[in-house]
Amino acid sequence: MRTKTEEMYATMRPWRLFFIVAAPGMINMFAMSIYSIFEGIFIGQILGEGAFAAVNIAMPLVFINFSLADLIGVGASAPISIALGKNEHDTANNIFSCSVIMIFLASVFMGSVMFIAAEPLSRMMGASDLLLDTAVRYLRTAALCSPLATIFFVMDNYLRISGFVKTSMVINIGCNLFTVVLLTFFLLGCGMDVVGSALATSISMCVCSVVAMIPFVARKALLKFVKPKFSFSMIKEIAACGSPVFLNNVSGRVTSILMNISLMTIGAETLGAGGGQTAVAVYAVLMYSSDLCWPLLYGIADSLAPALGFNWGAKNYGRVKGIVRCAYIGTAIIGLVSTSFLFFCPDLIASWFVNAEDVILLEVSTVAIRLFCFAYLFRWIGVTTQSYFSAIGKPLEATVISVATAFVFPILLLGALWSFGLDGIWFNFVGVNILTAILSVILLLKLTREINKKEKQPEGIEKSINL
Predict the structure, then answer these.
(1) Residues whose CB is less than 8 angstroms from the CB of residue 105 and which lie 6 or more positions away in sequence, other chains included
(2) Which of these, 141, 184, 139, lies nearest to 46 by C-alpha position?
(3) What is the DSSP letter of 457?
(4) FRET label pair with 387: which of 172, 241, 357, 400, CA 20 to 30 Å apart?
(5) C-beta of residue 152 within 8 angstroms of C-beta of residue 65
(6) DSSP state of 187
(7) At 267, phi and psi to the nearest 5?
(8) Dihedral (C-alpha) 327, 303, 42, 352: value to the nearest 10 degrees?
């Protein structure tokens, strides 16, 4: 017998499903990014350019740690949704239980590595002697809270699969409000530096990880904890389905490291003494600015993934096409709005993260945002397509998109645009997303032919609900 959540995935009209699932998903993902935005505002306005640059150098390692948890969490979500679509609840519960254990163990390992090797890792990422101590202290503070904090990022997937979309949204909003309170207390009340910032975000995520676990521990969710039964085939499937997101995140962080190293060189050549630190700080402004828009795109694509996986598992291809059409329309609108917002308000956005006294940083950041913003005219295509392939259990295509977007295209364009100096770095993001959009369209055409062929087969014909 189907649960209420399964019935919603199977029968609700696509646009109604979109507004019930994707709208809270957008708010949810944006809420998850708010802590990062506020952290950037606090560091930039209170601690200044040096701390801002140091945190940007340390941040790729922090996110690589989260990426390993995402590998397991996102990788488990697709087979869980497909299993539920096939009415295989025991399989879904076992994958869920095993994945939570794997996430915890992986986080303990990564946290230990980050803490012990903080100094050489920071140097490897381009930290100068001036920024090294600040970067190391931020990294080690985050590492101490890693085992529990990382669970917060992946429980969101399991809550949405179980139909707790609004609960997930409330938890994320609560997490960010708590983070802001702690940032205010540690940085303003206690006068702490970047350690206070790392503590604020880590403590709030740890608390909310515990809260997010309650529906599952109380056995009130669709997914339930069972005695785990690990198997090589299950781990292989999780790794395959999670590899696109993982490789995207890791490749992106490796690219960030190379960008930071390049910016130290180009910044010094373009802006003079101290220009490298300023250029890295501008890059940080761009990343924080992106957090205003990126979560809205990802929120739509990711929140509809369980419904896509469920209907793909049930062989209801007509509904798959209807749901994914809604996703593309929604992300296209967000992409256009994001570009407009960043283009017309670059000075306002830059002023949120940069102290008014840092005149050069403010001026360069404004120019960078206005160039960077055009990436969102195309970014929605790659984001939605990658999530689509991951949701229906096609990790190879999703991996190709993710690695190309996060590593191959940026590195190729880094060399091609080097002669344009800092403007070439900022425009790199636009070029990357144009190339990703072209690649995504090619792969989508191939998938469309496959679906059309399946629908023509007698056993593949399913009753679908039109828009």
Answers:
(1) none
(2) 184
(3) S
(4) 172
(5) no
(6) I
(7) -60, -40
(8) 10
pLDDT of residue 259: 87
Distance in angstroms (rounded) separating the CA atoms of residues 107 and 103: 6
CA distance 98 to 104: 10
Burial class (CB in 10 A: 0-12, 13-18, 19+), 248: buried
Those residues with Cβ within 8 angstroms of residue 383's Cβ, 6 or more apart along the chain or in another chain? 297, 298, 301, 331
User: What pLDDT shows up at residue 465?
Assistant: 41
Q: What pLDDT score was predicted for residue 2? A: 59
Summarised one tens digit per residue, pLDDT across range 394-423 is 888 988 998 899 889 999 999 999 999 999
C-alpha distance from residue 342 to each of 209, 226, 298, 372 (Å):
33, 47, 18, 8
Residues in Cβ contact with 391 at an 8 Å cutoff, skipping those fewer than 6 apart = 78, 81, 304, 305, 306, 308, 309, 312
Q: Tell me which residue of 253, 462, 460, 298 sits closest to 391, measured CA to CA.
A: 298
pTM of structure:
0.73
Spatial distance between the Cα atoms of 180 and 170, rounded to a whole number of angstroms: 16
> Cα separation of 409 and 414, whole Å?
8
For residue 171, which of 182, 161, 186, 160 has the smallest C-alpha distance? 160
Give the closest residue to 173 by CA, choosing from 343, 28, 388.
28
Query: Which residue numbers in the chain have pLDDT < 50?
Result: 460-467
How far lies 69's CA from each of 35, 104, 151, 154, 178, in Å?
A: 19, 8, 7, 7, 23
Contact call for residues 57 and 280 (beta carbons, < 8 A)? yes
Element (H, E) at 401: helix 395-403
C-alpha span between 434 and 208 (Å, rounded): 37
Coil, helix or strand at residue 33: helix
Give the torsion sign (CA, 266, 268, 272, 274): positive
How buried is residue 8: exposed, middle or buried, by Cβ count under 10 Å (0-12/13-18/19+)?
Answer: middle
- pLDDT digits 0-9 by tens, 302-333: 888 888 988 998 889 999 999 999 999 999 99
pLDDT at 424: 93
Provide the terminal-to-terminal Cα distance of the chain, rounded to the nearest Å: 26
User: Which residue matches tokens 């998109």?
Assistant: 401
The one-letter code for the residue type at 45 is Q
Nearest alpha-carbon partner for 241 in 400, 443, 91, 78? 78
Output the pLDDT for position 338: 95
Percent helix, strand and coil across the chain, each rounded to 5? 85, 0, 15
Per-residue pLDDT, 385:
96
Inter-residue contact 372 to 341 (CB < 8 Å): no
Looking at residue 316, what DSSP letter applies?
-
CA dist 402 and 247 (Å) reads 7
Q: Where are the domains of the chain?
A: 12-460
